[in-house]
Design goal:
alpha+beta; Actin, Chain A, domain 4; 19 strands
Length: about 325
């Protein structure tokens, strides 16, 4: 018998929740292809390890960028492989609930639905990531209270004010964790004259990246290729340098949160001041970001438990009670 599935189809990572079992798969949203014959060589963590380390004919790609499908065919193949890994076949075609960014267009929503159907799903429903995150965080979304969620993913940052199972106000910008990585790469190239890869930039962000000054400021040694000579070179970076490199991006995120608060009705704004803002998503783990948001808004900011799994856990709750919640939370696409 087919198991209903919830999929958080993220720009950085894809998580799958199976009804009655919990999270059964958590892999990077990367697929490695042979560009000569378009054969899939690897997917997920194995493909992620190939980024920047492959010969010319092997390409490791992320089929989703900024929360949108950039390559429909590759995305469809990736979803099919994901479903195969969790036991989906032609004989058991499950209902699938997919979490998508609120920023994507109707055309992009149809592309996600169609890709999942072609990959083996019998029925596809979509749910906005902020709503799923609020459910996963245990917020009282069914009550007449203002619940504000800031979801910072790999490609998008979304701020939603939720009350009575609906979105009252929404602000979404196409800025996320990968933009932080790109900004760090650009800074190191410009200021230190060395080239570093995407994975190295991400490691720097995790090690010493911050949005506000923190107590344990450490230095990091970075090795890369010097642009002038082409030889390996090592430089030492400080948290202040990285903070400056991503400052424009963190400022944009703060501005979007402030804009969403500005749309809130007075009564719900009072609820947000009392309850605080809830920070989810991998980007929410950037040190000092909660402090930066609190300074910008004047409202307490809380990083939820399990911010990376929060969205798929919320979607999983909807899957567990699919029949009663589908009309409230999900948008059908036929």
């Amino acid at each position: 018998m087919a198991r209903d599935l919830a999929i958080d189809l993220g720009t950085a990572n894809t998580l799958v929740y199976a009804k009655g079992e919990g999270i059964v798969l958590n892999e990077p949203s990367v697929i490695a292809l042979n560009s000569l014959n378009h054969e899939v060589l690897a997917m997920g963590r194995e493909a992620w390890q190939m980024i920047g380390r492959t010969p010319g004919y092997i390409v490791a790609v992320r089929p989703l960028r900024q929360g949108a499908i950039t390559d429909y065919d590759v995305t469809q193949r990736m979803i099919r492989l994901l479903l195969q890994r969790v036991g989906v076949s032609r004989l058991n075609r499950p209902k699938v609930l997919i979490c998508v960014p609120s920023a994507i267009t109707e055309v992009e929503q149809r592309a996600v639905s169609e890709a999942a159907r072609r990959a083996g799903a019998s029925d596809v429903q979509l749910i906005g990531q902020p709503m799923a995150a609020a459910i996963g965080a245990g917020l009282p979304v069914h009550e007449p209270l203002g619940n504000m969620v800031v979801d910072i993913g790999g490609g998008t940052s979304e701020t939603a004010l939720i009350s009575l199972r609906g979105t009252v106000a929404l602000e979404a910008i196409r800025v996320g964790g990968f933009d932080f990585d790109a900004a760090i790469q650009t800074f190191i190239r410009r200021e230190h004259g060395i080239a570093v890869g995407e994975r190295t930039a991400e490691e720097i962000k995790i090690a010493i990246g911050s949005a506000a000054p923190v107590a344990d400021d450490l230095l990091a040694e970075v090795r890369g290729r010097e642009l002038m000579s082409g030889l390996p070179k090592t430089v030492t970076l400080s948290p202040a340098e990285i903070r400056g490199a991503i400052d424009d991006l963190t400022t944009s995120i703060c501005a979007s949160v402030v804009a969403c608060l500005g749309k809130a009705p007075a009564e719900l704004a009072q609820d947000v001041i009392h309850q605080g803002i809830h920070l989810v998503g991998g980007g929410g783990l950037l040190r000092g970001l909660d402090q930066r948001l609190a300074q910008a808004t004047g409202v307490p900011v809380h990083v939820v438990d399990a911010p990376l799994e929060c969205v798929v856990l919320g979607a999983g709750e909807c899957i567990e009670d699919y029949a009663s919640l589908r009309e409230i939370f999900m948008k059908p696409h036929r």
